[in-house]
Design goal:
Blueprint (H helix, E strand, L loop, with lengths): L4 E8 L24 H15 L7 E4 L1 H10 L1 H9 L13 E4 L11 H19 L6 E2 L7 H9 L4 E4 L15 E6 L2 E7 L2 H9 L7 H9 L15 E7 L10 H9 L11 E3 L1 H5 L40 H23 L5 H10 L1 H5 L4 H8 L5 H19 L4 H4 L6 H21 L3 H9 L11 H11 L15
Parallel strand pairs: 1-2, 1-8, 1-9, 2-3, 3-4, 5-7
Antiparallel strand pairs: 6-7
This protein binds zinc ion.
The site of zinc ion (ZN) has 7 residues, from loops.
Length: 484
């Protein structure tokens, strides 16, 4: 008899908190007694979970912005994440780690080119970090549409994880993987997590006080019944933020340890532990049953992806979200136009966008900027090569300004929104200096079209405040309200 199984997936992510102008993280009072949130969450979650060996028994994705911070600030923890990818018994092609698209942008809201860059950067960062090509990828907020899935298939990604309400069929049995037909003979495997089990793990702290009771009372009832007729075992998947285990909820790193690697004295629970990587394995997608996905849906907004561009009813006043997105989209388009125009002096347009897709090697540190410029532009002058690198840096920060966290919360006065505005400032100032344009003036005008619900100051004032706090010169457009 094939025993049923439990797989746990942890989505480990922190937004980029480093000041784009200085590379430093400012001290954050709310994170006391630690100097900033990354340091605190590392101490409460990343470090202990990696030290306890929990990562060897779960599947996980480690966002590139967090991974690069860990690599610099706690290399031992970073290396334990990497070492946990290939645990014993896995085929060489599928480990337990999954990639994540690079800046945690909501991909269905991004342009086609941006989606492809974010996905390619995420896959390449993983390859450089983990030493193998990833087979699975975590989509930020599990935000999905068919176009995004087609790009994944084109990039030879085999699987992703989604919430069960992202399937068209609401009665779909989530205890096995499915395949989604993408047209043109393309397919991708989708693993749907168990909504009730994941929600109780995330939000019911009483449920996770005791791992044995959780296994008996919560997990086992989800696994009743025989295997599927084709012999596939029942596997139920818990997917949550990785930070849950020790940061959102104290001591849950211990809970996780006992849940996924019970000691020899633990009585048989009636199910085994597996991972999403093993669930999918090398099985050809064609052997999984077909499911259809609902376009533009996600795991943390029940109104599609409205939370990141409009007035999602979860926010008390989301009127700022649309204008902020429009302002940054307008800036993004303008930066692309100016950058590609300047790059036309030394390379063709497809070449420039190809270079953008490959620039992640420089950000990772696998290649020096100068070496990269020489490789891309072997016959250009040194000045042209320097110019080229400036344009790519502008593109890098222009991509970073779409991190989903800027729209996630209730008020644009929060640090997450200020940070995407700083990324926009970094990008626009690089471009304006290189091209003699005044895209920043247009940006400031556009930002003045929304206000903070709590402080009633407009987006231009929030932008100025963010720059002041980051120690950068502030430019005010005529007539804009002064920052308070
Ligand atoms: Zn919503």
């Amino acid at each position: 008899m094939i025993r049923p199984k439990l797989a746990v997936h942890g989505h480990f992510y922190q937004p980029e908190r480093r000041n784009p102008f200085t590379g430093e993280i400012a001290p954050q009072a709310g994170a006391a007694p630690y100097r900033d949130w990354n340091t605190r969450i590392n101490a409460e979650c990343y470090k202990p979970n990696s030290e306890r060996g929990n990562l060897r028994h779960i599947s996980f994705d480690l966002g590139p912005t967090l991974a690069s911070w860990l690599a610099t600030n706690d290399p031992a923890t970073h290396d334990r994440f990497v070492a946990s990818d290939m645990s014993v018994g896995l085929a060489a092609s599928c480990g337990d780690a999954m990639a994540q698209s690079y800046h945690h942008a909501i991909l269905p809201l991004a342009s086609f080119a941006d989606r492809r860059t974010e996905i390619r950067w995420g896959l390449r960062d993983f390859e450089l970090r983990f030493g193998r090509r990833p087979t699975g990828i975590w989509l930020p907020e599990t935000a999905v549409d068919m176009t995004t899935l087609r790009i994944l298939a084109d990039e030879r990604v085999r699987y992703t994880i989604l919430a069960p309400w992202q399937a068209v069929d609401s009665r779909l049995d989530t205890r096995r993987p499915y395949r989604v037909e993408l047209g043109g003979g393309k397919t991708i495997i989708v693993v749907f997590y168990d909504a009730a089990l994941s929600a109780s793990t995330s939000f019911e702290s009483d449920a996770t006080m005791n791992a044995d009771a959780f296994a008996r009372e919560r997990v086992l009832p989800r696994l009743t019944g025989p295997s599927f007729p084709d012999g596939t075992p029942r596997v139920t998947v818990i997917a949550t933020d990785g930070e849950l285990y020790g940061h959102h909820q104290k001591f849950r790193d211990l809970f996780l340890a006992h849940l996924v690697s019970p000691g020899p004295d633990t009585p048989d629970r009636g199910f085994d532990i597996t991972t999403v990587g093993r669930m999918v394995g090398d099985t050809p997608a064609s052997l999984f049953p077909v499911a259809q996905i609902s376009e533009r849906t996600s795991w943390s907004c029940h109104h599609g992806v409205l939370r990141w561009y409009g007035e999602c009813p979860d926010a008390s006043d989301g009127r700022w979200k649309g204008p902020l997105r429009v302002a940054l989209e307008r800036l993004g388009t303008a930066i692309d136009t100016v950058a590609a125009g300047l790059a036309a002096d030394f390379m063709d347009r497809p070449g420039f966008w190809r270079a953008r897709d490959e620039y992640v090697d420089v950000i990772f540190g696998a290649e020096t900027p100068e070496g990269f410029a020489r490789r891309c532009l072997p016959v250009a002058t040194a000045t042209q090569q320097a110019h080229f690198l400036t344009l790519l840096e502008a593109e890098r920060w222009r991509l970073a300004m779409f991190a989903s966290c800027g729209w996630f919360w209730d008020d644009p006065i929060r640090p997450e929104t200020k940070h995407v505005l700083l990324c926009a400032a970094k990008a626009v100032r690089l471009i304006d200096a290189a091209a003699g344009t005044d895209l920043e003036g247009s940006l400031i005008d556009d930002l003045a079209t929304f206000v903070s619900p709590s402080r009633r100051i407009d987006g231009a004032a929030i932008y100025a405040e963010a720059l002041e706090e980051a120690g950068q010169p502030v430019r005010r457009s005529p007539g804009a309200a002064p920052a308070s």
